[in-house]
Amino acid sequence: MIFLIRETFDCYKNNFTIALLFGVLLIFLPIFIYASEINIEAGSILLDYSIMSKDSSSFVLSVIIILIFLLFYSTLTTLMIFAVRREISKSKTKYSILEQIEKFSFKIFAFYLILLLIIFSINFIILSNRLNIILGLVISTIIAIITYFVPQSIIIDEFSLTSALAANLDFIRRKSDYFIYALAAGFLLFLLVVIAEFIIDSIFGFGYYLTPILSAIFVVPFLESLKTVIYLSKFELLLTRKK
Question: Among residues of the chain, what percentage have pLDDT more than 70?
Answer without folding.
Answer: 84
